[in-house]
Design brief:
This protein is of the alpha/beta class. It is 46% helix and 15% strand. The protein is built from 20 helices and 18 strands. Strands 2-1-3-4-5 form a five-stranded parallel beta sheet, with helices on both faces. A five-stranded parallel beta sheet has the order 9-12-15-8-16. A two-stranded antiparallel ribbon has the order 6-7. The protein is elongated and about 100 Å long.
Length: 452
């Protein structure tokens, strides 16, 4: 987060003091006492944040903000103003300034302000390059992703291209495990080869068994004719067993035998039918724990888990969130006939900071919601679902070594109180008990953090 800071103040001693303090904190500062001279350098050199006084000879701070906004709108400006001159700071914000700090300068507050401005600038860079990134993004089959976790995943899928081994795909709900299975299928199999998918949780045990293995006419009351099971339907292709962790325990031995013998016997049948199928299964459960608890067979687990492919959750994929958002904006805008072609910086920031427990599926729904509601050509914060608009990250960093990631004690307290409140289902009496404070103190602190 250590960036290039340009200081502008007609008081040279102030410039030198700020330069020394910011350099000590890891920033890369330089300074000018003339706004005109500084502006010429701003046009030709790349700075991350401009820190300027408002009262300057010649070109004043307001005019400087306007010129920077017109020529280098990508660079945030933080203005310094004397205590009691808040109106001037507001004028500067209207002229394009990002933030302001009051004099006399509290150096700790200034450092935090500059860190926020740096984060804002880098977010702008991500959003600005998003459209171009979508055109050249690295994808794998139908899977979109540029992030290191996805590049690692794509490399693993490449290595599996010539393998016939069973694959177990793990990952949270909504991460796109079926897309991974389809990509694996298309690597190896001919275009005409079948890809058959079934959810092990969607069917009752008896129906799942008959669907997987088939049945002969007369095997049970409704068996009016022979039915070829999914293993035989997928012959020469891929059988995808989604939510394999929900496979009924009584059905697991029969599945294991079919995989080991490479043949199935239909219900009510007397003969075995061989098949050539690549088995790909998927789960969002911890199957090792299920084995320990006795609800999943250990031998079946090892048979399925020859190769494991782990799909990263969306919150670990960084700016892939924006790539996917842009992809879905284009898709839903085209489907609805609306002229929506992007997303505002503030809305992008909301998407990047949200925790996405529902992963890509939740993002897709959020973008569809936003495209339907928006009245503009870009998605705004107000177009996003309420839970995303109102989301506040309650992650509390204790062991970080990057000073830019650390926050004040007040911020730590605020995040922790909100985290506890969320955890106990907004039960304020219980939250106060967990926090070791009385309810009046809790209410006072919530008012301070704007949550009363």
């Amino acid at each position: 987060m250590h960036g290039r800071i340009l200081i502008i103040d007609d008081d040279q001693s102030m410039c030198e003091m700020l330069e020394a303090d910011l350099r000590r904190r890891g920033f890369d500062p330089s300074w000018y006492t003339s706004a005109g001279e500084a502006f010429e350098n701003i046009k030709n050199k790349d700075f991350d944040v401009i820190l300027t006084d408002l009262r300057l000879p010649g070109m004043n701070g307001i005019e400087l903000c306007e010129r920077i906004a017109a020529n280098r709108s990508d660079v945030p400006v933080v203005v310094m103003t004397a205590f009691g001159s808040i109106e001037a700071a507001v004028d500067a914000m209207r002229a394009g300034a990002y933030d302001f700090v009051a004099k006399p300068i509290d150096l700790d507050i200034l450092a935090l302000c500059l860190q926020r401005a740096l984060k804002h600038r880098r977010l702008q860079e991500q959003v600005r390059t998003l459209s171009e990134s979508v055109k050249r993004f690295h994808s794998y089959d139908e899977i979109i992703g540029n992030s290191p976790p996805m590049q690692k995943l794509f490399a693993q899928l490449d290595r599996l291209a010539d393998s016939e081994a069973s694959v177990l795909i793990t990952g949270e709900s909504g991460t796109g495990k079926e897309l991974i299975a389809r990509a694996l299928h298309r690597q190896k199999r001919q275009e005409s080869a079948p890809f058959i998918a079934v959810s092990c949780s969607a069917l009752p045990e008896t129906l799942l068994e008959s669907e997987l293995f088939g049945y002969k006419r007369g095997a049970f009351t409704d068996a009016k004719k022979d039915h070829k099971g999914l293993f035989l339907q997928a012959d020469g292709g891929t059988l995808f067993l989604d939510e394999i962790g929900e496979m009924p325990v009584l059905l697991q031995p029969k599945l294991l035998r079919a995989l080991e013998e490479r043949s199935v016997r239909p219900i009510g049948g007397n003969s075995e039918h061989s098949f050539d199928v690549r088995l790909v299964s998927a789960t969002n459960r911890d199957l090792e724990s299920a084995v320990e608890e006795g609800c999943f067979r250990e031998d079946l687990f090892y048979r399925l888990n020859v190769i494991r492919v782990e799909v990263p959750p969306l919150r670990e994929r960084g700016t892939d969130i924006l790539l996917l958002a842009q992809h879905y904006i284009k898709y839903f805008a085209g489907r609805s006939g609306k002229k929506v072609d992007g997303i505002t910086d503030k809305a992008a920031e909301k998407l990047l900071t949200y925790d996405w427990h529902g992963n890509v599926r939740e993002l897709r729904n959020a973008v569809e919601h936003a495209v339907v509601l928006t009245r503009f050509d870009k998605i705004t914060v107000e177009d996003l679902p309420k839970k995303i608009r109102a989301y506040q990250n309650d992650h509390i960093l204790i062991s970080g070594h990057n000073p830019a990631e650390l926050v004040s004690m007040e911020e730590v307290e605020g995040r922790y109180i909100l985290h506890v409140l969320k955890t106990v289902g907004d039960n304020r009496t219980l939250a106060a008990r967990v926090l070791g404070m009385d309810r009046k103190t809790l209410y006072r602190k919530l008012r301070r953090y704007g949550k009363a």
